[in-house]
Write a structure and sequence with these properties.
Helicase, Ruva Protein, domain 3; two-stranded antiparallel ribbon; five-stranded mixed β-sheet; 2 domains; about 200 residues; Dna Topoisomerase Vi A Subunit, Chain: A, domain 2; alpha/beta
């Protein structure tokens, strides 16, 4: 791509480094920003910088937050006896959009995938076990993507939590096998939460 300005080229390179953004799209976005008022571009860059500086992971559930503890964990209106285990922060957003789950969350930060070098130690599994042991948790809901990696992770957590006697359930299989939670429509995902079933190892395919 022949770009006459080295500054535009540098901006295109940075925007193009974002996932799902090709060179042509990056160029279009950069040229759009170039046409914006200087104060608008300043607001844009300041917002990104402040986000990077101030957003952190909740010390309890590992969701994104501006504070030490996120709004969900600190809310007096959430059911603190339920913990919904998800792989990714985007899964929290997807489940919250259904407005069907009123408990707490625990973000693992991924799923067990030996081929990718991701084992239990790389995930927030030990902190989940600690939460269940010290809090008044009555139910742990497995809301992991129905795939080999997701089922392997759920089974590993099940074996770790089994001695505690806590109820362990899983989303109803309204979510397609191999489908990501964030891409599942809100109605289907909401029903999967409400119609969750007891977790048993025999459910693993």
């Amino acid at each position: 791509m022949n770009i006459l300005s080295k500054h535009i080229e540098a901006a295109v390179e940075q925007v193009g480094s974002l996932p799902g953004i090709g060179k042509k799209t990056a160029l279009r976005l950069v040229l759009h920003l170039l046409r914006r008022k200087p104060e608008d571009v300043e607001k844009f860059s300041v917002a990104i910088s402040r986000m990077k500086e101030n957003v952190r992971l909740c010390s309890v559930c590992h969701n994104l937050t501006d504070h030490e503890i996120c709004g969900i964990c600190s809310s007096p209106y959430r059911d603190k006896t339920q913990i919904c285990v998800v792989a990714d922060i985007r899964d929290v957003m997807a489940l919250e959009a259904t407005e069907q789950f009123k408990g707490l969350y625990h973000v693992l930060g991924g799923v067990i995938s030996p081929l990718d070098g991701v084992g239990p130690a790389e995930l927030e599994i030990s902190s989940l076990i600690d939460r269940v042991s010290r809090e008044n948790t009555k139910e742990v809901i497995m809301a992991l993507t129905p795939s080999m990696e997701g089922d392997t992770t759920a089974f590993y957590i099940y074996r770790k939590l089994e001695p505690s006697g806590v109820n362990i359930s899983m989303l109803a299989r309204g979510v397609a096998v191999g489908g990501e939670l964030e891409h599942t429509d809100e109605v289907t995902l909401g029903r999967s939460v409400l119609q969750r079933t007891p977790y048993t190892p025999s459910l693993i395919k």
